[in-house]
Automatic annotation (TrEMBL):
Gene3D superfamilies: Bacterial extracellular solute-binding protein, family 7 (3.40.190.170). Keywords: Signal, Transport. Belongs to the bacterial solute-binding protein 7 family. GO terms for biological process: C4-dicarboxylate transport; transmembrane transport. PROSITE patterns: TAT. Residues 1-24 form the signal peptide. This is DctP family TRAP transporter solute-binding subunit. Pfam families: DctP. It comes from the Bacteria.
Length: 340
């Protein structure tokens, strides 16, 4: 006869062997896909968001489903600083942080991309990101347990606030949200503003509640975060660049089977072409959409105003030479064809 204790023991034994059987029957251990968690902080409908989704599509196709890419947009999993820690700890495998966010890891050289007016446009930027300087920057990530895979474009930044920003004087005393880059801090200080480092996911609310007065971002980020709804003025200053390095946890990457890694590299090359092919147009479309929304007045700088911005901001290159490296700044200036 079964007493209650025997019954429970028997039930536990049956349930154990059923799970063992199910595991063996499905061949679970062998057939489970390799999962790559790709976390990012922007909306899916941005150059980075679309690049991540394209990589997912291609990576899953080229590995015949052997790899599953889980994309987590909009800081769903982690905010700016935490996502880099999560990558190093292996809690996520892939990210594409903005180049302005590598300084706190000790990779100050990446801040060269933040220097005001260092690129005259996408062509001059690509000479750096697709050239030897770009490669040597990605190589530096290895010392932090990170493998750099590619540079993805976003675009050139505009400045926004609730008051017009025509000349540097207009910035005096304004609290401006920045990413965690010392170059951006120096840039805002050079304009007489008060820089405030803040995670991207917090910017909309900070603008809405007046915790900060204004910010800078490419139109695609401004639009998809609805910042235009809480910023009355914006200046099409294109004073600096914002783009990304796509990175993976190095140990995870190195331990992948070589054929899988090869297929993922192929997917990344094509996703990079795609992302960098759409970035300019995505930003143009976002700007048009914000103009159509009519909540923000957009200002184009006159030649005199632009000269005043140059005068205020170009000294940041020299000021940051000790931090970033004078040689690197010169190299980028020469490769980008902008000699300041
Ligand atoms: C920001 O924090 O403003 C941007 O880096 C967000 C992003 O990833 O584009």
């Amino acid at each position: 006869m079964f007493d209650r204790r025997t019954f429970l023991r028997t039930a536990a034994a049956i349930s154990l062997s059923v799970s063992a059987f199910a595991l063996a029957a499905s061949g679970a251990a062998a057939a489970d896909p390799i999962v790559i968690r790709f976390s990012h902080v922007v909306a899916p409908d941005t150059p980075k968001g679309k690049g991540a989704d394209k990589f997912k599509e291609l990576a899953e196709k080229y590995t015949n489903g052997g790899v599953k890419i889980e994309v987590y947009p909009n800081s769903q999993l982690y905010k700016d600083k935490e996502e880099l820690e999560a990558l190093q700890l292996g809690a996520v495998q892939m990210l594409a942080p903005s180049l302005a966010k590598f300084g706190p890891l000790g990779l100050k050289e990446f801040e060269v991309f933040d220097l005001p007016y260092i690129f005259s446009g996408y062509d001059s930027l690509h000479k750096v990101t697709y050239g030897p300087v770009g490669k040597s920057l990605l190589d530096k990530l290895g010392s932090k347990g990170i493998q750099g895979l590619a540079f993805w474009d976003n675009g050139f930044k505009i400045m926004s606030a609730n008051s017009p920003l025509k000349t540097p004087d207009d910035f005096l005393g304004l609290k401006m949200r920045i990413q965690s880059s010392k170059v951006l801090e120096a840039e805002m200080n050079a304009l007489g503003a008060v820089p405030q480092v803040m995670a991207f996911s917090e910017v909309y609310q900070a603008l809405q509640t007046g915790v900060v007065d204004g910010t800078e971002n490419p139109p695609s980020n401004m639009y998809t975060q609805k910042m235009h709804e809480v910023q009355k003025h914006a200046t099409l200053s294109n004073h600096g660049y914002l783009g990304y390095a796509v990175i993976v946890n190095k140990k995870f990457w190195d331990e992948l089977p070589a054929d899988v890694r090869g297929n993922l590299e192929k997917a990344m090359t094509e996703a990079t072409e795609y992302a960098n092919g759409i970035a300019k147009e995505e930003n143009e479309k976002a700007l048009e959409a914000m103009k159509a929304a009519g909540t923000t007045e957009f200002h184009e700088l006159t030649a005199d105003e632009l000269a005043a911005w140059h005068k205020a901001l170009l000294p940041v290159h020299d000021e940051m030479a000790d931090r970033i490296g004078a040689d690197l700044i010169k190299q980028v200036q020469q490769e980008a064809g902008v000699a300041n």
